């Protein structure tokens, strides 16, 4: 936020930066009007909800983890639904939620460049744990 303090877009509009982790966010997206984001913040030991309409997002957190309660793909879908512009594409963030999907994309690069230019750790994919027993 300090890099944008006092800065303006087109010399006219103030830049306001909101920073949160996915677990602090909730949103509603609309066909006709982008989306509204609710952010829970702690102020003097009390949870306070602030609402805003984002114009742009920079996402620096994984949207999906196997840990309990760490699936935030619905927020990525909501940002996409609301047409929010991002630094890193929402398409790439959503695709990165599946590690095997990402690795399959790396295999394409491996096959086009070769193992000398693009080495990969060898892996085997199974659709489920049941197929691993042979």
UniProtKB/TrEMBL annotation:
It is found in: Synapse. Keywords: Phosphoprotein, Synapse. InterPro entries: PreATP-grasp_dom_sf (IPR016185), Synapsin (IPR001359), Synapsin_ATP-bd_dom (IPR020898), Synapsin_pre-ATP-grasp_dom (IPR020897). The keyword Acetylation does not apply. The keyword Methyltransferase does not apply. One of its GO terms (biological process) is neurotransmitter secretion. Residues 88-133 form the Synapsin ATP-binding domain. Coiled coil: none annotated. It comes from the Eukaryota. GO terms for cellular component: synaptic vesicle membrane. Its main location: other. Residues 1-84 form the Synapsin pre-ATP-grasp domain. Belongs to the synapsin family. This is Synapsin-3.
